[in-house]
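B., you asked whether I could sanity-check this one before it goes into the benchmark set. Here's the sequence:
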Amino acid sequence: MDFNLPITMLFAGLLTLLYFALSVNIIRLRWRDRVGIGTGDSQDLKVAVRIHGNFAEYVPLSLVLFVLMEWHGAASTLLYVLGGVLFVARICHALGLTMSVGPSWARTVGVLGTFSVLLMQAGYLIGAFIGGVL
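And here's what the prediction gave me:
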């Protein structure tokens, strides 16, 4: 079995850089607002922590699903499209929440993009299972 997963590696690297940027933003806001733990009274810090948390809630599962898909032999075009959509969606989600804690076009794109990728990944893997069983 070949354990070389170049497409997953690419998007894991890109998403890690985005996660790092979100983390640095939290550190910057902690310094600016002099908050050592928690979020204090800083609305900006509350939003940044939530953006970071939301990323940490959804992206790891998607990366695991990318590994399974690529390992199973999913078409590279499908993986690149899903990876690109997820990356753009996560940037949009962060920008959308930064612009407004309420609804925004960017947040909507982020949520819909992330959920679409997860649903496509789940569908692919369930389909692959059914196809292998039958």
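One thing to flag: The chain is about 85% helix and 0% strand. Otherwise nothing jumped out at me.
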